[in-house]
Design a protein that fits this description.
By secondary structure, the protein is α/β, with parallel strands linked by helices. It starts with a strand and ends in an 8-residue tail after the last helix.
Length: about 900
């Protein structure tokens, strides 16, 4: 007997309790039992079967249930893995959205902070009358951005202008006190409902400083936060009514949200569990106490929500949050489970959907792996940097400790001097490493700034060459310098920072160039527009070169070309990142072109203004230079042109020759010259032979100065036999030529020459007495030794309290105070404030100069805010200390 029918399996996917499977047999395809049993939200599949009499229904059902059981087990495993993957992916996506929005919000706040800083430096705010300042502030309203609803001034007594001449008292506001006390330059209030707009707003204030560093008033703006609110409204995960976003202040008050009913009315830190919210109180404490938090809570209607929160970096400490219905968050998981239930019952659909699902999971997995690899790479970069820093710091420290031990045991003065020189080199290297770390910290905090001053361009380049020249000679490199003669001699800019970039690029070029290679610096004038000169610098070497992959990460902090670069060549990996930031501050850019094994060219541009400097002719006044004749012999045309240019500036007679043969002909025709500047390596007759021939012709009466870019030490003996009296290394600078001329025909520039340049003899401080407040004994000992030649009388205090007592006892005794900051019992800030508060005119006026290792801009401003007059950094640059003292101690022979 044959019988046909349909075996139906219906799978129900329900949120609770889960999956329900029902199986039953229908004799015919149109049996109404199926239509009655199937539900709208179920997935059903039927298999038409031919059933022989020998196969019972129970056997078929048992086989089907076994198959379904196996498939259900596989289904559960896949479901659990998929649920966790999707949940993690949703969490990662949410935090990525929050981090991006939080960064943008922080940048908005920072942009208005920078705007306030720029506005506060306008002359009208610094030097105008009170009325003019108030009018100028209110005139800015509506001009500084869409977010700003009003601009006003807050005076030291707490009066804030509503309109010029009308005030409200806000002296008790924490953000006002914070700026006036010097704790911070810029402060932001807690959010409030603005009377001007009726919308949430904050007040941001910034100190207006006088040239002496005193806070005159606070420039304030009321921000309506429209841009921030737009960012919050723009957060969308496709949740619709199932989710919302908000920004809460540091106390938990929600002041911005895409749900208006929450704004300025809800505080996440005061969730009342008795009102029906479960889990929100504990979650809110976690949100306010951590930079990043996630968790769930249940509302009074029993709906579970998932919350993601991210802290906005900076001083404002706001929290940005997304709240999403957990049901909505897991909706992709439920949908996927429904699809998988159907796949179990239909083989074709199962295979097709499984392929899609596996592809999606693989994409999710790949994204997660990529994110993990990036995080690991970042961690490895920081770890490598720390290991490199340890090496860079320990290496010079080892030299300092080792050479100190050798120096103590040395028996000869020469050996001690050798040890001292090595200790000095190692200490300077260590200071350079520390300066690099401080500079990158300033860059990351956006506090690296320029200090433009007039400077001599050629002298700046010469100082850089003096720093790197010993390494050039050590590796016997060919060092070339080419300068566009149209570049002005005097420029206005931050010469120290520009020199830092050039020195870094030259040091790298020298480091990565093998012995006997070539390193060159070329400077050209690209254009001049309205007094702004755009200069391009190129540092080229014949070193190891760089691949495109290495070039791509070269200007990032903590990165070098290869992980073992620091082990092979040394260095912090910070120099190029610092150089990039400095160049950008000078309105320029930096780039590299290179090939592995073929060297590299690092180039950058900067924009500088024409400077204004007074130049003096530094030639010795004891010589009639109008009667002196000079011949410069060099086969390089640019060097001959340079000699003629310098001679014209010095008003001396100079001829040039391109070869030794031409030099001899000119000497025979014009008579012997007083001084010959002779290049060593020239085609045909070289400099040594030419010098010997000139010596024979002039009976040794002319002075020959040998010039070369190579190391002249190994030919020094032969050169002296040939009549060479002096040696100069290329590149040659104007000051080198002047020094040689003075040494050859005049006498060394006398002491009164220094006075003509504004530098006075060290004894000029005789008759003055200063107070040195320093708690470290070795630092006091060093300072006293340095001051000894100046004629200064120095008293010492070991802490701020002792300095205060000494000033209080005899304020008229001291002409200036050098004040350390970090001292026991009483620090330098408090000591200064108490000295300024003494009831004595001399104590209130005595110059106080901070002498501290705290060298950031905010450290300097904090010193000035405490009542100090000036600042000098540690380690002590004694020339800088003397410049500060000359500023406050007028020249006199004896103290009045």
């Amino acid at each position: 007997m044959k019988k046909t029918g349909i075996l139906f399996t219906i799978v129900y996917f329900e949120k609770r309790p889960g999956i329900v499977i029902e199986s039953f047999y229908c004799p015919e395809p149109d049996d109404p039992t199926f239509h009655k049993t199937a539900r709208d939200d179920s997935v059903a599949a039927g298999v038409w079967m031919k059933r022989k009499k020998s196969i019972g229904f129970n056997t078929i059902l048992t086989i089907e249930l076994l198959v379904l059981f196996v498939m259900a087990g596989i289904f559960v495993i896949i479901a659990v893995q998929t649920r966790d993957s999707l949940k993690n992916l949703a969490q990662i996506s949410s935090f990525q959205i929050l981090k991006a929005r939080a960064g943008t919000i922080n940048e908005i706040i920072n942009s208005y902070q920078r705007l306030l800083s720029v506005q506060s430096r306008q002359d009208i705010f610094i030097s105008g009358t009170d009325r003019e300042v108030e009018e100028a502030a209110h005139a800015q309203t509506g001009k500084l951005g869409d977010d700003i609803s009003s601009v006003f001034i807050i005076w030291p007594d707490g009066r804030a202008t509503t309109t010029p001449g009308n005030y409200i008292d806000i002296a008790d506001r924490p953000y006002v006190r914070a700026v006036y006390s010097g704790e911070m330059d810029t402060a932001v209030s807690d959010p409030f409902n603005s009377r001007n707009t009726g919308r949430p707003a904050v007040i941001m204030v910034h100190a207006v400083k006088t040239p002496g560093g005193r806070t005159r008033a606070l420039l304030a703006i009321e921000m309506t936060l429209a841009k921030v609110n737009a960012l919050v409204d723009g957060i969308s995960l496709g949740a619709g009514e199932s989710g919302y976003a908000w920004v809460a202040d540091k106390n938990g008050l929600i002041f911005l949200s895409d749900r208006p009913e929450l704004t300025m009315k809800t505080n996440i830190a005061r969730a009342d569990e008795e009102a029906g919210y479960k889990g929100l109180t504990a979650l809110s404490r976690e949100i306010l106490g951590r930079k990043q938090a996630t968790g769930t809570f249940v509302n009074p209607q029993g709906v579970e929500y998932t919350l993601f929160a991210e802290e906005i970096s900076g001083q404002i400490r706001w929290k940005l949050g997304i709240v999403i219905s957990t049901e909505f968050l897991m909706l992709p998981f439920h949908n996927l489970m429904l699809a998988l239930a159907g796949l179990m019952l239909t083989a074709l659909a199962a295979s097709m959907a499984a392929a899609v699902h596996v592809g999606k999971l693989r994409a999710v997995r790949n994204d997660l792996i990529h994110a993990q690899e990036e995080a690991i790479a970042g961690a490895n970069a920081k770890s490598s940097f720390l290991a490199n820093m340890s090496h860079e710091i320990r290496t010079p420290l080892n030299a300092v400790v080792g050479m100190t031990t050798l120096g103590k045991n040395a028996s000869s003065p020469e050996r001690k001097d050798y040890c001292f020189s090595k200790i000095e080199d190692a200490s300077n290297h260590l200071l350079g490493v520390i300066n690099d770390i401080l500079d990158i910290s300033k860059i990351e905090a956006n506090k690296l700034e320029l200090s433009p001053r007039n400077f001599d361009f050629e002298k700046m380049v010469q100082r850089v060459f003096n720093v790197v020249n010993f390494r050039v000679e050590e590796k016997r490199l060919n060092f070339l310098f080419h300068k566009d003669k149209t570049i002005p001699r005097a420029l206005l800019g931050d010469a120290q920072r520009l020199a830092q970039v050039i020195a870094n690029l030259l040091s790298n070029a020298i480091k990565f160039t093998p012995e006997l290679g070539t390193v060159s610096l070329t400077v050209r004038l690209l254009r001049e527009e309205e007094g702004i000169f755009t200069l391009q610098f190129e540092v080229t070497d014949t070193g190891i070169g760089l691949s495109p992959e290495q070039q791509a990460k070269l200007f990032s902090p903590f990165q070098q070309a290869e992980s073992d670069t620091s082990r092979k060549f040394g260095g912090t990996g910070l120099g190029l990142a610092i150089s990039k930031r400095i160049v950008e501050l000078m309105n320029g850019r930096i780039w590299v072109s290179s090939e592995p094994g073929r060297g590299s060219t690092f180039a950058f541009t900067v924009c500088l203004e024409r400077g204004a400097m007074e130049y003096h002719n530094l030639l010795s006044p004891d010589v009639n230079w109008g009667n002196v004749r000079v011949l410069a012999v060099d086969d390089a045309s640019e060097d001959r042109e340079y000699f003629l240019d310098v001679a014209g500036q010095l008003h001396i007679s100079c001829d040039v020759a391109a070869s030794g043969e031409e030099a001899l002909r000119m000497s025979a025709m014009n008579g012997p010259y007083d001084i010959y500047f002779m290049d060593w390596k020239m085609p045909g007759m070289d400099g040594l032979e030419t010098a010997a021939r000139i010596g024979e012709a002039t009976a040794g009466k002319s002075v020959v100065i040998m010039v070369s870019s190579a190391d002249l030490r190994h030919i020094e003996t032969d050169a002296k036999k040939a009549g060479v009296g002096h040696f100069l290394s290329k590149p040659i600078f104007r000051s080198d030529i002047v020094d040689c001329l003075n040494q050859c025909l005049g006498r060394p520039w006398p002491a009164n020459a220094k006075e003509r340049q504004g530098v006075e003899p060290e004894e000029r401080f005789a008759g003055y007495r200063i107070l040195l407040a320093e708690d470290v004994e070795i630092n006091r000992e060093i300072a006293l030794a340095l001051f000894e030649p100046t004629g200064l009388a120095v008293d010492c205090a070991e802490n701020g309290r002792q300095a205060l007592e000494m000033i209080q006892a005899a304020p008229e005794r001291y002409d200036a105070v050098l004040m350390d900051i970090q001292m026991p019992e009483m620090d330098g800030y408090e000591a200064t404030r108490k000295i300024r508060g003494l009831d004595d005119a001399r104590a209130r006026a005595v110059p106080i100069i901070a002498m501290t290792a705290n060298v950031f801009r905010e450290d300097v401003e904090k010193c000035l805010a405490a009542g100090m007059d000036d600042h000098t950094g540690k380690p002590l640059d004694f020339e800088d200390v003397k410049r500060k003292l000359r500023k406050y101690l007028p020249a006199r022979s004896t103290a009045a």
